[in-house]
Amino acid sequence: MKKMHLVFYTILLELKRILFRVKYSAEVDVTDNCNLRCKHCYHFHGKKGFKTKELPLEVWEKRFEKLHKAGVRFILLVGGEPALRTDVLMLADKIFPFVSIITNGTIKIPKEFNHPLFVSLDGMKEINDSIRGKGVFSKVMKRSEE
Known about the structure:
Elements: H1 2-20, E1 25-29, H2 57-69, E2 74-78, H3 86-95, E3 98-103, E4 117-119, H4 125-132, H5 136-145
Parallel strand pairs: 1-2, 2-3, 3-4
Helix pairs in contact: 2-3
């Protein structure tokens, strides 16, 4: 029953977007920080040390409430590595009905966060680890079993 409700709600949002040109989705960079240094990542290209100051949760709350008030109901959280900010993930969970994350899969996300996760891998173990770092593939696979 819940799944049918979500399907109808999604159709309603799409109709609203088409008819009234109201946006209901947003993509948000939760952080520029990451625990990996993937060879292809634009965040760290040409930089050895890179760490940004994190925004306080109160700032995220204001931003999320503004997006929600504007009609956003689906939010995609990306990074850097969004799992470094579980406080922001859990805040998004409270405000938005649809939340998804693109993650490198190496950091545990709370079980209470019951939304889709998109885990980035670059192939099987040898290829992935040559890009993302030794042991990353195995760590992601182990994390997926937890």
